[in-house]
Write a structure and sequence with these properties.
alpha+beta; 7-stranded mixed sheet; 6-stranded mixed sheet
């Protein structure tokens, strides 16, 4: 006897809904029916235009052609994120993707760098980053090195138009059997045990399902509106609660990195696409007014605004359970971390991958739900800590930044900071998203000093250490000089049609 297919209903489209639909359409080829409900009348937030390298794994798993995807989304390449003025006005550093230096023997590169700096023979940390060297030179390359086999391939991510990405994935998903249903959800029907049974549209159409994905954005129509799951507020650590977003016309060639520029009561993003530049001002309403924030944003644009600034309001934090009963929240419905380290789209990707890994049989086992929530909580909490570090470690004079310096840190972050300060050591726990090199760049870039280095770093003679550091810098600089320009690379490989 043939069993009925398991029906997965996705509430909401946008980036979250169509990423999930595309993945399920690709990997759940039989035994499942995938249905997505969205309304053309309901807009999406759609400001998640910068990504981290893991997005390439998602696209590759789907089998997307990278150049075609970039043409369709107006995409550019991203080698890292520049933080301008976060330590103090005028100071800049970059969190670049990839390795910093090369480890020697049993200990990490930062111990040799700390020792060399103490001896006065080290350059700033960025001199030993291939990605930052290439980014500052405006260069881009895919594949192996051009000048020396010892140099690893450059890791990269993308800037793209999130709305165009969702549309691209919609076409992909519908071509693989995902059914899109137009309409607004008017009612969430439930059964006696509290599970969701169906979504009822304003038209009266009833969409039954076995597993429901809430991709309805900040509203959390299912996870919160129906199930009242609860929300854990993290604004005591990440106090920004509003944002303004505005696109501008491009000025000059696109940079191969994102910019995050500190402002009086928050920060401004600048994300270069092929057809426009994404801009936004994330700020704390307790320290500035909406009008003042808009004035700051508009006064610091590089190109002509292409629309009026669009306001967003949010509370940083997460749902108390990302998977509650037979509803899994994804994207903004599951929680919100400001886009300081471009993690919004990654968290969707991680949620989709996690659900596929823990895909349930029916009825859903509690152990599966618990494991999904445990992994989700760990990931977002460690990302939260990484973002807090940017705010806490500052020397800016404004009241907002002074308040950030005085906050009480989570124990998990405090332990990481003390390990770095006392021993120059960084430990990546389990499946933390950010690597030791990522933490190193932000700790050093924000001015958090390590008091000592590992004693094994002292075993290399000072002259040999100086030669090693100089060789690394020269190798990276020579490689960057050989790479094509970012704009030229795009023009040759993935230029979007204009107009």
């Amino acid at each position: 006897m043939q069993q009925d297919p398991v029906t997965i209903v996705i509430a909401g489209g946008g980036t979250a809904g169509w990423m999930a639909a595309a993945a399920f359409g690709r990997f759940l080829e039989s035994g499942y029916r995938i249905r997505l409900i969205e309304s053309e009348e309901i807009g999406t937030v759609g400001v998640g235009e910068a990504t981290i390298p893991q997005i390439r794994l998602f696209n590759e798993a789907l089998g997307l052609d990278e150049n075609a995807f970039l043409r369709a989304t107006g995409g550019t390449f991203k080698l890292g994120i520049e933080f301008d003025g976060w330590t103090e006005p005028g100071h800049r550093y970059m969190h670049a993707f990839g390795d910093i230096g090369r480890d020697v023997g049993l200990i990490a590169f930062q111990h040799y760098w700390l020792r060399a700096r103490g001896l006065g023979i080290a350059k700033p940390l960025h001199a030993y980053s291939m990605n930052e060297t290439a980014a500052r030179a405006g260069r881009m390359h895919r594949g192996g090195p051009l000048t020396a086999a010892a140099i690893p391939p450059i890791p990269y991510a993308f800037h793209f138009d999130a709305g165009l990405y969702a549309a691209y994935l919609r076409r992909f998903a519908e071509n693989r059997g995902v059914e899109r249903i137009e309409g607004k959800i008017a009612e969430v029907a439930r059964v006696e045990n509290g599970d969701v049974a169906a979504l009822v549209l304003e038209s009266g159409q009833r969409i039954d399902g076995d597993l429901f994905l809430d991709c309805t954005g900040f509203r959390g129509l299912l996870i919160e509106g129906a199930l009242e799951t609860g929300y854990e507020d993290w604004s005591r650590w990440l106090p920004c609660d509003r944002a303004l977003a505005v696109p501008t016309a491009n000025v000059g060639a696109p940079l191969p990195y994102t910019r995050a520029i500190a402002r009086e009561a928050g920060w401004q993003w600048r994300i270069p696409l092929q057809h426009r530049t994404g801009n936004g001002h994330v700020y704390c309403s307790a320290f500035t007014s909406d009008q003042a924030a808009a004035d700051v944003l508009l006064a610091n644009l590089e190109g002509k605004p292409l629309a009026e600034p669009r306001p967003l309001r949010f509370v940083t934090g997460r749902r108390r359970r990302a998977w509650n009963r037979n509803v899994v929240a994804m994207g903004l419905a599951s929680g919100f971390l400001e886009p300081l380290e471009s993690t919004s789209i990654h968290l969707i990707q991680a949620a989709v991958s996690r659900l596929l890994k823990l895909l349930p049989t029916l009825p859903v086992a509690d152990a599966l739900r618990d494991e999904y929530n445990r992994e989700s909580d760990f990931e977002i909490e460690r990302i939260r800590d990484f973002l807090i570090l940017h705010y806490w470690a500052n020397a800016r004079p404004e009241p907002f930044w002074q308040a950030c310096r005085e906050m009480t840190l989570p124990d998990t972050l405090l332990a990481k900071i003390e390990l770095w300060r006392d021993a120059g050591t960084i430990v990546r726990e389990h499946e933390e998203l950010f690597t030791e090199d990522g933490w190193l760049q932000v700790l050093a870039g924000q001015g958090v000093e390590a008091r000592r280095h590992h004693p094994l770093a002292d075993q290399i003679p000072a002259a040999d250490l100086a030669e090693y550091m100089e060789t690394l810098e020269l190798l990276y600089r020579r490689e960057a000089e050989a790479l094509p320009g970012h704009a030229d690379f795009i023009a040759r490989n993935c230029a979007a049609r204009q107009g």
